[in-house]
Amino acid sequence: MNKHLKPTVRISFSRHPIRIIVAIAVAAAMVFQAYVWVIQREGNLPVPKGFGNFPENRSVLESAPAKEGFSFAVMGDISSVGTFERICDHLRKMPLDFAVLVGDGSYGPAEPEHRYLRAELHEYALSCPFFYVVGNRDVSADRFPLDRFERDYGPSIFSFEYQQCLFIVLRTLEEPFTNEESLAYLRQFRDIPRDRYRYRFVFMHIPPPMTPLFRQRAVPEGDELIRTFEEIGVDYVFSGHYHRYARVRRGSTNYIVSGGGGSNLAPSPPGQFHHALILQVRPDCIEEQIISVSKCINMEDLLERTAITQTWPFMERHPVGLILLDVVGLVLIILLVRRRPIHSR
């Protein structure tokens, strides 16, 4: 061999760009795994201050001084990766006294979906109490039971008084859940004189069968709920469940469905829109305002949801396999980027 040959070092994959691609792909997979481990921890965060049905959130309103008027927001079925955040951006600009989510805050009744919701709640936070009515996608008899919902978000049946008005939150769910407890709770208000309150409002998830349009998926106790609303003198009943907006007046009660908070909209009737409602209660009237937004897909939220609801549960189930894959990945990267001396003149 010529003693004057000088060894030069070249990366072995310089003539094989496919090696670069493979090495980058393996490294990216390992980086994403680390990202998932970090981002899933947001699902362990407690709900932000003011969110939920806890007594301290209600006491903020019940102990507030009297004033001439007030306003509150209502929205339902908010599961989305950007749309409801856009609605919240508008709500933060408004002088709200409180807000009510009429159910289906989660994509589904499972722990991973609620962990994603809790991770997002800090982006949904408002500067006022924010109550959470339980919906059919929020609980399951086995995967996310009702007592777990109440532990995380507070009681599912409650009421409070504010500015001489009564607000009642009910739990209306399909089988295997029963709604008898909600009916029994509602009936206790029948003996209260009507002139005790200026207005009476009820919030629930599945609407009663106030028209044939909503009868096909109504709860068995729906007709009894309507009769009790009439006996009590309820002025407004707000619900969600149907991913649309609808308004019906039956007797002296206004029934409003607000299920367009972010979930995919119902295909019919056409013309549905994502929205939230604003109710302004004045001494002599109640004004209704609709805040409408277009659908929004935030890629960061989409990535976070994938990480928390899909990738992390897989990682938890297969920890040993992931460690082995990480070791193989590191060895593969080392082999792909190894440096070989190549002699040249």
Polypeptide structure, described:
- With 345 residues, this protein is α/β, with parallel strands linked by helices.
- The chain has 2 domains: 6-41 and 319-344, no CATH class; 48-293, Metallo-dependent phosphatases (Purple Acid Phosphatase, chain A, domain 2), CATH 3.60.21.
- It has helices spanning 17-39, 55-62, 83-91, 111-124, 146-153, 180-187, 222-232, 299-317, 319-336, and strands spanning 6-11, 70-75, 98-101, 130-132, 158-162, 165-169, 199-203, 236-239, 245-250, 253-258, 274-281, 286-293, 339-344.
- The strands form 3 sheets. Strands 5-6-7-8-10-9 form a 6-stranded mixed β-sheet.
- β5 and β6 (165-169) form a beta hairpin.
- α1 packs antiparallel against α9 (319-336) and α4 packs antiparallel against α8 (299-317).
- The longest helix is centred in the first third of the chain and has 23 residues, at 17-39.
- The N and C termini lie close together (11 Å).
- The mean pLDDT is 88.
List keywords for this structure.
34% helix; Purple Acid Phosphatase, chain A, domain 2; 6-stranded mixed β-sheet; alpha/beta; 345 residues; single chain; 13 strands
